[in-house]
Amino acid sequence: MSRVDALPKAPPASCPQCSTSLTDRVIKPFSAMPTKLRTTAFGCIAVCPKCSAKLTGVRTFVRVFAGNYKFLRQSFQPVTESNLAELKALQEYLSLGEQGVEIHLQGLGENPELVAWFEDTRASAERALPALPSAGLPEASLPAHAGITLVESRFVEPGILAGVRFIADTPASALAYASSLRRAARQVGSAAYVRSYDQPEFAVRWDIGSPAFGAPAILETAA
Prior knowledge:
By secondary structure, the protein is an alpha+beta fold. It has 2 domains: 13-95, Nuclear Transport Factor 2, Chain: A (Roll), CATH 3.10.450; 101-212, Alpha-Beta Plaits (2-Layer Sandwich). Helices cover 21% and strands 35% of the residues. It is built from 5 helices and 11 strands, in the order E-E-E-E-E-E-H-H-E-E-E-E-H-E-H-H. The protein has helices spanning 84-94, 100-104, 171-187, 200-207, 217-222, and strands at 13-14, 21-22, 27-36, 39-47, 54-65, 68-78, 113-118, 137-138, 148-157, 160-168, 192-196. Strands 7, 8, 9, 10 and 11 form a 5-stranded antiparallel beta sheet that branches. The chain has a 4-stranded antiparallel beta sheet with strand order 3-4-5-6. Strands 1-2 form a two-stranded antiparallel sheet. The longest helix is centred in the C-terminal third of the chain and has 17 residues, at 171-187. It is globular and about 55 Å long.
């Protein structure tokens, strides 16, 4: 993953609200991520200069060689209350979990309980770079941290963690450990997605044994 300030050259997009042409002057990238062999997706935001609609989208390019891209396709949609969660999922996915803490772990209470899922990158090797693909986090790579009590561990296979559930003594300890988990996962070619177990939707997801979060629909339609 890399944060980017400029996009490779691409044809103008169209506002889905009023069909106004959207040039690179109004389309701003927030991150880029290899998604398939030689293919890179750039997450973008824009504001239509005519109708003022706030838009989000994905521009996909084929890497011809280092630093050079050929435009493939693009998809934009209005930012609404109904798709705001998908936009946040896109930001988190393209940042390999980095933006998940900013989005999901604000306002934790005392002694927060959290869960972390580790992404299986074996089917999308470029998401593991510069490491090799991984089924999850090796148990030996699980970091230790003061103020953290491990409650439950789940395994993809012996010695490889699919996720962990833990209790922190303070919100600060929880955030610090979430950062440690992300760093440890990236070092072995995985990605960590950390959530509050106190939020019912994530507690249920953990309890039923769901795997790590996959690519959001907006990325699949543009990839």
